[in-house]
Here is the input.
Amino acid sequence: LPELPEVECIVRDLKRNVTGRTITGLKFLFYQMLQGAKAEEFSRQTRGKVIEDVERKGKYILFSLSSNQIMEIHLRMTGRLFFCSAPVNPDKYTGAIFYLDRNAELHFQDIRKFGTFKLYGTRDLSNSKPFLLGPDPLCEAFVLEFFLEILHNSPKKTIKAFLLDQRKIAGLGNIYTDEALFRAGVHPGRRVNSLNLQEKKRIFYTVCSILQEGIFFKGTSFSDYRDLWGGRGEFQERLRVYRRGKEPCPNCGTAIERKILAGRGTYFCPCCQPFFS
DNA sequence: CTCCGTGCCTGTGAGC
DNA sequence: TGCTCACAGGCACGGA
Here is the structure.
């Protein structure tokens, strides 16, 4: 499940390996990622274009192509990008192959086919989804004062729903949200307006630090995530509550609980993260 | 505004 | 062993 740290790792590797390369061809093996767009048209518009830059907005990957085009890829649940410097046979989950110059290939693979591709002009960028996201928690502008302000604007939301809302903050998913709240000692079902300043400060700090730690350990390969070369991250070994229902809390030994909150399987320690309103 | 359910997909693993 | 079925959670959408 690629969240901000996983997408950041992929984008860093893409920057080093595909920027400056020309897309010499694009072949589709399934079409769900196009969401109704015409494959032929998509291929025609990317063929011959130079990848000038790759960047991340939240969990979106944006390729800047020559002739002022942006290609947006979202990996959703099980999407992967796999780079190879020489041609390889696609596996059964490969949905698209970008042929690059010097014989390199970039394969898009997706078991569940939820991933999406979009293509638009740089002029339309301000109307695109990635531009409508909340602030990136790793950017310099994301300071405590700002976090307190946006929290203040959503008093009735639960803190878990708030952190997962990409219009408030961009990049957190289910794994890093649960881990950040555990480290902050805050129950995921708490309403934002029930949090005191200390708790808000701890959440701010743990959100920032958990994401940086996730990047440092090359992401969470709990199940599906792989890096640009198919390698695994290491952060799954450092998860303290996610998918550890019934196991003892690493702080106090109490059994970790699992409940559905904000529509997701949610893990927390009932002792270290007490609920009250 | 906010919450909730549904749809999109397929692999995994528990239980019978 | 082999079958069924709930579950995994990203985002969009419609309705309460």
Observations:
- The longest helix of chain A spans residues 197-216.
- Chain A has a mean pLDDT of 94.
- The longest strand of chain A covers residues 51-57.
- Chain A has six helices and ten strands.
